[in-house]
Structures are given as C-alpha cells and as structure tokens.
Amino acid sequence: MARHVEESVKLHLAMMCALLSWQWQELQDLQQELEELSVGSDGVLIWKTGSYGRRLQEAKAKPNLECFSPAFYTHKCGYKLQVSAFLNGKGSGEGTRLSLYVDLLPGAFDNLLEWSFARRVTFCLLDQSDSGLAKPQHITETFHPGPNWKHFQKPGTWGGSLD
Q: Quick one: how many helices (H) and strands (E) in the chain?
C-alpha cells in the first residue's frame, strides 16, 4: 500500500485535476443555463442600481464607465435586450447627464423574429429622493426605432459590434 501511494501520487493528482476541471466546466454550463432561465420575458425591466452616489463618483473618475442591466426578453420567444447606463453621461451628455441605451443582444429566437426591431421603447427613471420633501420628479422618454437604425437590426448583421 505504501509503495502504491508513493508511485501513484502523480497519477492520482492528475485524475483529481481532470475531475475538478470537468466539474468546473459543468458548473459554468449550469450557471449559464440558470442565467438564461432567469431572464425576464414580459418586456419589462425594473433595474435598481444600488449605491448610486458611490457609482457616480466612480464614473466621474473613469470616463466611459458603463453599467449593464440584466438581460430580458420583450415577450416569450421575443427579442433579447439589455440596458446600459453611463452615469456621468456619454458624448454630448458627458459630465451633465445620465445616458441610457437599449442594446439588442443575440437571442435564442432571432431567426423567428421580424427585423428590424420596431417596437416602442419606454424608459422611466423613477425619482427615489425623499418623498416628504417634494413631489417625485419621474422622467419618462419613449421612442420608436426607425426601420433603418443600424443598431436595431438583427444582431451581428450590420457589421459592427453586437451593441
């Protein structure tokens, strides 16, 4: 037994490393499946960002710092979307505005959908300040993507990034 243990340490270690590697890959695959199952499919995203003040200071220190929401679907078997935010603005809004973007992601049902994406998009920024001080100042913006807007074509078909 002692001789077996001494002679087989490397073999046993290699077997355990292979098993660990396989288990790690299985865990990654299950995590990906869980994320896909947890994606909303009712066309509504409620994205609450915590520690806004701290995150805004980070955005001021790191220009073009982008935050991403969880992905969601417009409906069952629909378009897969994600919202991104530049807390300190981007482009002409840099330093003065919150810039929000809706990104089309490659989805499981893209080949079944009509393109370009032409659904109404509404952003509602909910004022979370102390309601005892003043009436909340919610902000709502709605737009309809035009048929020629390249970022609302089928992801991967217009030659740019997938954003």
A: 2, 6
C-alpha span between 99 and 83 (Å, rounded):
10
CB 75 within 8 A of CB 41: yes
pLDDT, tens digit (0-9, with 9 covering 90-100), for 95-116: 999 999 999 999 989 999 999 9
Contact present, 158 and 150 (Cβ < 8 Å): yes
Q: Give the pLDDT confidence of 109-159 residue by residue, as tens digits.
A: 999 999 999 999 999 988 887 767 778 889 999 999 998 888 899 987 655
What is the residue-averaged pLDDT of the chain?
87
| Joined tokens for residue 153 | 């074509």
Rounded mean pLDDT, 37-58: 84
Question: What sections of the chain are H helices per DSSP?
Answer: 2-38, 52-61
Amino acid code (one letter) for 3: R
